[in-house]
Amino acid sequence: MTSVLVAGTGGQGVITASGILGAAAACDGHDVKLSEIHGMSQRGGSVFSIVRFGERVHSPLPMRGTIDILVALEVIEAVRWSQWLSPDAAVLVQDLERVPPEVADETLLHIRERLNVMRERVRECVLLPPGVVRDGGHRSNTVFLGVLSTYLSISGDSWDRAFALAAPQGTLSRNLAAFHHGRQLVGAVRQET
Amino acid sequence: MGALDAGVGVAYSYPGTPATEILEALARNESVRARWTTNEKVALENGVGASLCGVRALVSMKHVGLNVAADPLFVLAYVGVKAGLVVVTADDPGIHSSQNEQDSRHYARAAKLPMLEPADSGEARRFAREAFTISERFGTPVLLRLTTRTAHSRSLAPAVSAVDCEVPAHGGFTPDPQSYVMIPTYARERHEQALRRIDDMAGFAEAWEGNELTLAGTDLGIITSGMAYQYCREVLPKASYLKLGMVHPLPRGMIRELAVHVERVIVVEELDPFLETEIRAMGIPAEGKSLLPSSGELNPDILAARLRGEEPGKTVPPMKVSERQPALCPGCPYMALVLALRDLDVVVAGDIGCYTLSSLPPLSVIDTTLCMGAGIAVAQGMEDAGEPEPHVAVIGDSTFCHAGMPALLNAVQNGYSTKVVILDNQTVAMTGLQPSPTSGRNSDGAPAPRLGIAALAVAMGVDRGNVVELRGNRIEELKQTLAEQFARSGVSVMVLREPCLLLPGLRKPTKRVTVSLARCTACGECLTVGCPALSRRGGVIVLEEALCTACGVCGQVCPADAIEEGEA
Fold it and tell me: Does A42 contact B155 at a Cβ distance shorter than 8 Å?
């Protein structure tokens, strides 16, 4: 069973991305459960969604320390989930900070320290600058789905069907372009890390 | 989906997380008349009307909405239904976005109604469809209970065969006053019938497929329902299970069968010991709340700790990351009014809506929030208690229409001096921009009359000079108008009419706001506005243009005149 956590802040498209991932896993023949909490996302809050897929999934929530892959569109949200990651986890993070107004400067330094601690603990961490991610005007959430896809064995055909099913109306070609951009990015980055 | 499978004809709801998406989904289907109503009581009563005339009805709401609909719900248990009527209630264990985490299962027992509880999306679809059949077979409304976790999770929900989806023809209204008119002589007999019916349903529950008994290991038997079942299966795969799809009435035979098979019975349920109490009353020494919490959500880690005696992985030290405090959107049209209230330093009886967030620091303006429409009435009680003037209440347009109107009428009738500030952003904003009676559009998307709140206040008897319409976002102007009204005697109604900036079709900002680093002293006064676009980084005030909507409110509070508005 694979557990993927997608995290970010309200408006970054976390829920949409996780829905597409869930659809791709379902198209690929897996049992899928997806859990999201979005009560306050519209007002600037944290948003996360957990997608679990495998032969049979009971709980949409995994136990701590078992998340296989964390996709985070923002750094503070990445660090928030560090305790939930498996030691074998891969972490894919957009190097973007959305700082809440109530957070003091010192906290930001701590966030960077904590990010480094998290990187030590997991198998692999890929940190992508927003400029690279959005190069070409792409939306970061879909680009990261592309990056994520290189870590999963879900077939390209399943991804295509998922986008056709779950991407918002009129966005299909844009989304596929962003997805492929993400897939290409990883080859280059993985050679560096 | 399940309701659609059942050929539901009408659906009624008032927005409320985590139930809002139910009506939104039904509204996308042309075969259903799906309507947002002014409140949940009206929604349920609409449903009753349809059901008694032979059309299947689905009514949905969040848990506190069920409190509002409780009056018709209890009497409906006596009246019964003709075509199936299903009432969906979505509880919120963990209080993700509500005022409480009440356990709505108690309504089933109190009202003598059956209640189904699905454990995932697939079951939600099946149970919703079956609920209509059960409703018609026994002539009773059926409650369907979700929680935030089941409502906001997704899983595979297989389609149903057409045979399972046949809708019986009911015909229209047939007079039956002994069933439909609850005067005492009729009601007494209907109560007896309701008691007999719930007994009959207990027999039905024994054979119903939604209740699943799996006898496996003899050490441990778990009785559970809903999402808790999924967590249990994750953590205790070898136990014997009674998974209840119907939490009221209970299948006592199945419960006894499990109890006899195992050495130890544990009841795993979120919130109250609803099942546990009834099971123990049967004489079965089941454990539950001696092991598990009565507040908050359950999850696999809690179950592993409490039921398997495991501590969560201590190898990874915790990293505390501050929670993102919810805030009003950048450019919210109420920001200036909230700041004006802050400057005036008054006690504010608040209500339910986006503005409730202004109870948090740095704004800290709202002093009480109880339930829909409460602020106006709470302020009246404060006045009677001798609290110094002014007695201010703040409420939004949709909440005012939901429950605030009787409170305003009470203020006028009983001679209070309540100062009512109504934030009319022409939508139900917090839940996702559903139409409200001031929108000018109804849930079909068709034009509807806009409620004139100011005119309504005058019609209720508020002095004309005490009714003002406020516009714009200039803090000083708003402060002046508010202060002037606060000094008057009698009820005042001040209506700020500015549309929610998230509504589609509104103009994009043509201005641009920047912070002049030359003039900025980094005093941080602008940060007290609580706008997500402003923060302090490296000792410097930073305005994130991607989030800024150029409303200019921060510029109004800057003592150094360092925030500039220019062309976009």
Answer: no
